[in-house]
Amino acid sequence: MNPMSLLEALDQSDLDAVYKRSLLTTQGWSDADLASIRSLARTLAGFDRAGLSTSLCPSELAWAVFFDQSTRTKSAWAGAASRLGMQPVIVDGSSTQVSHGETAVETGAMLGMNAHAMGIRHDLILGEGNTFIRDITQGIDDYLAATDDPRAVPVVNLQCDVDHPTQSMADLMWLEEKFGDLAGKKIAVSWAYSPSYAKPLSVPQGLATLLTRFGADVTLAHPPGYQLIDECMDAAHANAANGGSFRVVDDMDEAFADADIVYPKSWGAYDLMLERVDANATGDTEGLAAVEQKALARNAEHTDWICDERRMGLTAAGEALYMHCLPADIGAEVSPGVMDKYKVDVAREANYKVYVVMALLAAAKVPDIAARLTEIAEEASQ
Ligand code: CP
User: What is the Cβ-side half-sphere exposure of residue 136, based on CA atoms within 13 angstroms?
Assistant: First the structure.
């Protein structure tokens, strides 16, 4: 696609609204804010494919800290920062002084001194991750204000206990590529069996809160006891009131019936996620291991919650789009055959995260981003 044509979708006045902004949850951003980021992400993806350099933030530090494992999001952060000319640095959270009790606000101030953007993953402990990210953001902002430092140091939530906003935005962009308008589309977000670990709740929560904003009919399915946090369920119901619908069922087949899109993935049983909070608070590592074993035993009561060929046959014309944030437990969450059929689709879904992160950083850091990209495109066309 011609990079100049992609620029037509950019509106600097919309982008001005997200200059210097941090993304902590999609719920905290307006539809217009999220639309401007998606337009910019599409433009940056087009520039990337056209081989145009977008080194808009040279010599800047893009620092990310992960308190949980990651493949895709770490690589998306590094890829996005590199494409903007920034230096990405990714740190294991357990190697920081946070593990010795340094507070999030203090840590934010320390990082705000010399970093130019910050990403955080803190997703395993209910009630803690999003608060940690907000406290880091506060620490950075307070430091910059106290020192009259004009730098924009946006914080990007790279998955917390509440939301995984770069994932749900990537998912939304993939859905828009496949379907255009989501109005009237039936989307099944379902729990699925996993023997590997008790996964965070934030992916289904992020999907339920974001996709209900676009007129889709979203069905959330899970076995009894696997409910999600009230804050996100309330938001999903409220968002759906503007068009589309949101319902919760306890039957995977019911959710899959006639669905256009299915997103089956595992998460931990709610009461055990709360037990994990208690064990973590007292540093009880044996207790944490015991909770994990209980969570896997609980999951094992529902091995029939798998996205397989039979269930895909229940969907619209038997051809629903299969989605997953990855990694998927193949043979448990999804059958090998279904995963094989959609392996390129899920990779393309994942690839959008690079451009979502890139757009978030570029929009927050470059005040005249539309003009700067126009200059790049004009230079390239000479
Ligand atoms: N989907 C996702 O966030 O993948 P990672 O855990 O590998 O980052």
Answer: 29
CB of 70 within 6 A of ligand 1: the answer is yes
Does 276 sit in the ligand 1 pocket, CB within 6 Å? no
Q: How confident is the model at residue 209 (pLDDT cuts 50, 70, 90)?
A: very high
Ligand 1 centroid–CA 377 distance in Å is 32
Residue 173 carries which side chain, given as an amino acid letter? M
Per-residue tokens: 144: 């910059």
Determine the distance separating the centroid of ligand 1 and the alpha carbon of 34, expressed in angstroms.
21
- Structure-token match 């007292």, residue found: 282
pLDDT at 251: 98
CA 62 to chain centre: 18
Fold of 3-161+354-381: Rossmann fold (3.40.50)
Closest ligand 1 atom to Cα of 158: 3
What is the number of residues in the chain?
382
Q: Where in the chain is the domain with CATH 3.40.50.1370?
A: 3-161+354-381, 167-334
Spatial distance between the Cα atoms of 375 and 166, rounded to a whole number of angstroms: 28
Taking the centre of ligand 1 as the mean of its atom positions, its distance from the CA of residue 325, in whole angstroms, is 7
Domain 167-334: CATH superfamily is Aspartate/ornithine carbamoyltransferase (3.40.50.1370)
In this structure, which residue's CA is closest to atom 4 in ligand 1?
Answer: 72
Judge if the beta carbon of residue 134 lies within 6 A of ligand 1.
no
Asked whether 157 lines ligand 1 (CB < 6 A), one says no
Structure tokens at 69: 């494992």
Cα–Cα distance between 178 and 56 in angstroms, integer? 30
**240-287 pLDDT, tens digit each:** 998 999 999 999 999 999 999 999 999 999 999 999 999 999 989 999
Closest CA to 235 of 26, 18, 22: 26
